[in-house]
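User: I'm new to structure prediction. If I give you an amino acid sequence, what do you actually give back? Let's try with this one:
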Amino acid sequence: MKTINLLELLEEIASRWYLLVICMILGGLIGLGISTILPPFYESEAAFSVTIDYTQTGALTDVEEDQAMRGVGSVIFSDDVIIPLIQNLASDGISINDQLFNDNATMDREEFRWTIWYRDTSPQVAYLVADAWAKQADQILQQALLHARLADSYQDLLSSLETCLQNTTQTNSGLDSCSLENMDLITAEIEKTSDLVSSELQESQGLFSALSVELVDTAQQPSQPVRRQRNTLVFSAAALGFFTGIFLLTLFSQFRRKAVNV
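Assistant: Good question. You get back a string of structure tokens that encode the predicted 3D arrangement of the chain. For your 262 residues, that looks like this:
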């Protein structure tokens, strides 16, 4: 098997650089032609704004703020949102499965804002899915935040009950409800409230009560298609043309070496 002389190949490329340019141009034109033939896609988007009540949390680090934002994003793309969304769309005559949704749905975060997109060859379908997704996500987010606030309320009650239990060991505390006679009742209430705190925290899906999430931009039906794939196709085809040119020049260099040796 003959080896490739790298120096000869570089000289061949330098002397016939125009062939590489031609191959890249042809590749780019092919990519442009393919993107024109492909059906156009329409995108519809909606956006959520996230705020934090720092009077409740105090100063947060960048990591803590990032975790809070990621938590909101996780809920927006969670099974609690997507599964009922697909089911509701099916009842409205729009049939999509998990794979199709994941292929055409996109999320992006910018500071304290989450934007969601859905694309389809039909502008109406793109709008209907994006609109239903935004509303379903908003519903689940508000429910989760409600549970987070309830968890805080129960936690405050739990702290009061634990303080009350501690007071039962003090004589003449002046708190009739925290007397030794009520110890069993207080203990039972602590267990009950503790269970409520755990349950509400689980339902909060990792969100905390100081968060506020608002659907600020609702989905609209798009009027113009987007062709984000055009740039990718043109670039990829041009790159393929470049490497094809390298391959052809390598073959030419090998043939020329063989002819010289003969």
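You can read the tokens as a compact description of the fold. Here is one thing that stands out. The mean pLDDT is 85.
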